[in-house]
Design a protein that fits this description.
globular; alpha+beta; three-stranded antiparallel β-sheet; 354 residues; five-stranded antiparallel β-sheet
């Protein structure tokens, strides 16, 4: 199985994962052969990538850190919440905790926690998918710190609601496809204050959640917003969500820019280190997020090309690779598996956009 852009899919490729809308409608079932008509249908629903299984990715399984069912349920809850006219009256802390508990249980059911965010999201559903993914990433970091169940729940609630203040921002600003004016960006910044003011008054929502909404755009050197807080003046949970927020935002396509590869974003976050982010949070984050996710096409120093088959948590830049193409660009008659941790003459030099 591998994740592929629709514009690169050849007719006849088989869909590996069923695609379901947030309303629960099946757009395309697993096993379907992709046709031009199916591609048009998916694009019309804002979906630009799907999972397929072909000869070169046969038997490669993408790790599922949280089940699709739980992710879709969480997205639906967030969408319902953010689309209600009376937000204050509609936030039910108990219901949010229920879905966070399901996410926590799903993560903890994995023997080896390595995060690969594998959800297929519609462009229109970005806000809801982003909220859920930031929650998953934040919880994994919290687990890396050894947080107790109650503290994880509070972190999960705050992270899934970290952008709740955006319901107060005009849609024409939030969805503007070009660069914002200074005035519009100043308005966007206010979502942190709006969210804080909203959540601190909601029964059943801990103060940690409101601190997360307020502080997830603050930076350790004081260059963030809304109050230019520095270092220890930023709540620890907000520092966790800051890293998760940046990672998911930059690894996602937006109308105004193309997404970056996971390794590029990890390098970006680590390069900023303690300047923008809490160094302890960054150190935990890089231990649990896949540098080259399973299914990624890669180019080796030999010129050969392959697909990441298995992630190596101890050596994130040296996964197991299924080599499928020689240095001249010819498909190999017999694929071979190369474990970069034991065959040190090989290394990844670039990404292969298959």
């Amino acid at each position: 199985m591998r994740r592929v852009s629709l514009d690169k899919i050849q007719a006849g490729a088989k869909l590996a994962k069923t695609i379901v809308t947030l309303e629960g409608k099946v757009l395309l079932a697993s096993g379907a052969e992709i046709t031009e008509e199916y591609k048009r249908r998916l694009l019309s629903n804002g979906i630009s990538e799907i999972y397929i299984e072909d000869e070169i990715s046969k038997d490669i399984e993408i790790p599922e850190i949280v089940s699709d069912e739980i992710i879709n349920e969480a997205k639906r809850r967030v969408k319902l919440l953010m689309n209600k006219p009376s937000l204050k009256a509609s936030i039910d802390g108990y219901q949010i905790m229920q879905i966070v508990d399901k996410i926590i249980a799903s993560i903890l059911s994995n023997k080896d926690i390595v995060c690969t965010l594998s959800d297929i999201r519609s462009v229109d559903d970005y806000t809801f998918s982003h909220s859920v993914n930031v929650c998953i990433l934040s919880l994994i970091i919290g687990m890396g710190f050894g947080y107790c169940s109650e503290k994880l729940r509070e972190l999960g609630v705050g992270s899934i609601l970290h952008d709740i203040g955006k319901v107060m921002i005009p849609q024409e600003i939030l969805k503007k496809p070009v660069q914002l004016t200074n005035e519009e960006f100043e308005e966007i910044k206010k979502h942190t204050i709006y969210g804080h003011e909203l959540l601190k008054k909601i029964r059943g929502i801990s103060m940690m959640a409101s601190y997360i909404t307020l502080g997830h755009h603050e930076r350790m050197d004081g260059s963030g917003y809304p109050y230019h807080l520095k270092g220890e003046y930023i709540h620890k949970a907000a520092r966790i969500v800051a890293v998760a927020d940046v990672y998911d935002a930059l690894t996602t396509d937006r109308v105004y820019r193309k997404k970056l590869m996971p390794y590029e974003v990890i390098d970006y976050i680590t390069s900023l280190g303690s300047k923008h982010f809490d160094q302890e949070v960054v150190d935990v984050f890089v231990r649990y997020v896949a540098y080259y996710p399973v299914g990624t096409g890669v180019i080796l120093n030999t010129g050969e090309r392959g697909i990441v088959k298995k992630y190596n948590k101890k050596f994130p830049t040296r996964p197991e690779v299924r080599v499928v193409m020689d240095a001249e660009g010819k498909m190999l008659p017999k694929q071979r598996e190369v474990d970069l941790t034991s065959e040190l003459q090989y290394r990844i030099v670039d990404i292969w956009d298959i």
